[in-house]
Amino acid sequence: MEFELDEEQQLLRRSVRETVTKVRGRPEKQQWETYLRLGWLEAPPLELALILEELGYAADPTPFLATATWFAPLTGRLPEGSGTAVFDGIGRYVLDADRADEVALLTHRGVTVVPGAELAAERVPVLDPHLHAAHVDADGLVAAVPDLALLGLAATCVGACRRVLDLVLDHVKQRVQFGRPLGSFQAVKHKAADMHVAIERARALTHFSALTIAEDDPRRADAAHMAKAAAGECQRLVFRHGLQLSGAMGFTWENELQYHLKRAQACDLLLGTASVHRKALLA
Amino acid sequence: MKLADDPEVEEFRAQFAAFLDAHLPEEAEARERAGSSAHVPAWARRWQRTLFDAGWLLPGQPPEYGGRNAGLPQQLAHLEELARRRIYHSFNPQGLGIIAASLLTFGTEEQKRRWAVPILRAEITAALGMSEPEAGSDLAALRTRAVADGDGFVVNGQKIWTSGAHDADVLLTFVRTDPEAPKHKGISALLIPTGTEGVVRRPFGSIAAEDDLDFNEVFLTDVRVPRENLVGPLGEGWRVANGSLGHERTLLWLSYAERLEDLLLDAADAGAGQEWYATLRMDLTALRLLGYRQLGPDRDPAEISVLKLLGSEAVQSASLHVLEAHGAEGLEHPGRTGPYHHMHHEHFISSWFERYARSFAGTIAGGTSEIQRNIIAERILGLPR
């Protein structure tokens, strides 16, 4: 197999990074329209994983993730506006169900789509100020999680973890204590190295998951579980080391670290933690 | 990025598979085991010679050195096919992969003819004299001295951990030729035949058994080495030490992947329903993916540290999980922990405890995990030294 991003994919990654950096801080609606105009919602799985990694890196506030990886694979189409889907069989903590324009429901009768405005959905208060999760009240729900939904959360998680590591690296390169940069201490270096390895491992598995979905390879279900589990394991380490190495600064509301830590943790908790997917892999 | 191999690689793999099916040593023939990493039984010498003659020993080399000028993906396929059949291409791995490879890169034509080709053809074996009592992770602190004298050098000093030295015919030895130069600059590489007067080798046992003799202390007292045995330019030994590993280092991860693969197979019962078993599968898949990625052009060599750290630590934690899964039964030694295979006998007789203990070779040798983390932090993440 070949496991290097080709030139077009590398170019895409760079241009997504530039675009996301440029529109950051603008009204959410403008960001969303930019993504739409650039055709990101139509991206095939591997390209979508690259886009989501960058959106995760930026703690993107739009409903892109749910639209591209929850609604689209369940319905086989894109929604008018934004979308999400209920496929967990219970309708709990459904990403963006309180604000999506269309919501797809997986019930024992198949897939039905209802306008968001007509849906009984109640936003759940959560620690992350940007995260929209809602409970949906509907009858006859059944569970069948699309591979792409697991991949989407995994890729977003990897991006958030990379951001945490980058923020930590900036901090420990600049912050001087005892007459030397914190980053010159081996205890700090080794934690940073372990974060890097965990991110590389999880990212490799998200790319593999995307490839198996794109080629409809028989390993696609296992690969999606692996990607989700590895991203969860990664965020566990990155959250712990990332917050610890940022010191008291990382513990404040003003420091942006909090958004990325919370995004990473949410991606693990939604649709099953690492442990759930390790078990699924054994089944 | 794609899942399938290129057709040329598939073709190459099929050719080699057909060769292996026709030429693998028979069980009756392969009874004698290798005593150390430089002790090659007669049957294994014949096997290595067969590979050399057919151009299947080191496929990346030209035919005169046992290869066929193959690219990196082909070299990977070659090692994968060997591992699948649980056979080594050489029972003197450092001789083949490091010493002969260094000579092919840095040696003179005469050195290639006199030393590299005989090592490749398994006519002689070689060991690598790098570490010293005071120079382990800090290899460049080595103190063994070589003083120019007439048309050669006189060498005095001591090496340690020299795997297989007591069975080897020649040592590629790193020595200090200029004590005034900065520590990385004054090092040179010398070939020292082990029969030379003043060379004394003392093998000592490993954690696995008193008579598991691979480690050696090597004492060098007034050893005379002719000038023609200098490998690479005088004072360029550090470059030889780093450059010699070349492609071997790029493919080093594969040995960890193969060990993980063995653990997956051998621990299937112990791991049934256990989450660590799923982690092991993820480690293996990620290691292979990152390893394939490293075959691409313009990869940062520091990324090899990611592969080594991930691979060696995964093998270690997997070995511990399997050992724990067996409880007190894991104490039994020797134990049968793998399926019998006539060319891979070690697995069959190694207890789980021994396999766990041996896993520390991966996290200590060739740059400890701590050194790998420093390399990742400094060279990839840009943290200050």
TrEMBL record, chain A:
Residues 152-280 form the Acyl-CoA dehydrogenase/oxidase C-terminal domain. GO terms for molecular function: acyl-CoA dehydrogenase activity. Pfam families: Acyl-CoA_dh_1. Keywords: FAD, Flavoprotein, Oxidoreductase. Belongs to the acyl-CoA dehydrogenase family. PANTHER family: ACYL-COA DEHYDROGENASE, ACYL-COA DEHYDROGENASE FADE28. This is Acyl-CoA dehydrogenase. It comes from Streptomyces viridochromogenes. The lineage of its organism: Bacteria, Bacillati, Actinomycetota, Actinomycetes, Kitasatosporales.
